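Hi L.,

As promised, Carbohydrate ABC transporter permease:
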Amino acid sequence: MSQVIATPTVNTATRKPLALVGRAAPGVIAWIVAALLFFPIFWMTITAFKTEQQAYSSSLIFTPTLESFREVFARSNYFSFAWNSVQISVGVTLLCLALAVPAAYAMAFFPTRRTQKTLLWMLSTKMMPSVGVLVPIYLLCKNSGLLDTVSGLVIVYTLINLPIAVWMSFTYFAEIPRDILEAGRIDGATTWQEIVHLLVPMSMPGLASTSLLLVILSWNEAFWSINLSSSNAAPLTVFIASYSSPEGLFWAKLSAASLLAVAPILIVGWLSQKQLVRGLTFGAVK
């Protein structure tokens, strides 16, 4: 006696919506996360165009005013702080690359048994709390005449960001075929000629993204700038901190100062986002 086995029928009408939902879910989650990350910037922006009385209200309906910006410019020399930030960020980026590129070159193309341990040790220094070395670094800067100077902040920031620069450069250099450098060596290229004329041009997307990241990190550094500078070399992070006082926070002025401080780096990041993504994914797909 034969048995008939019934096969379950698949409802294609319900599978298509489920498939569409499954494909759309990552995009929806990404938009939600992006909205949450952007919300503080959005709230800071609208608060900057309020008066101090309006700043304590959560209403989105108000009459925009430039009063807070006028008071900020009247109280502080914004362009002096901005120029210090530019000098520090550019100086740190150039100095980090000048040290990181030769170090990463040696580690990528002439590795030893200690190369990985050295890289891990360099990265582990980023895990040390900055406040733990504040006193000795402050005394070193004071005794060497580097306190409240742009060069002093450049040196400190370089030491902080150098591990990241070396790690990122090493990752990009590791993707470069060694045969190209060996061909240059056969043609008589010296070590510096290999780096300048072969290695750097081939890894330019990665080095560009490293430079952008170093600029952003240097621009946003607040702990060391507040503790190692006061007036002469104070960057925009000190400019923002000057609008907080023991008596309370002036939210409208603080938001206006914050917007003036972050606007330049936001514009740079927006204009270079394609280059940054390209550099961060350099060598990821072969």
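The chain is about 70% helix and 0% strand.

Thanks again for sending the construct details.

K.
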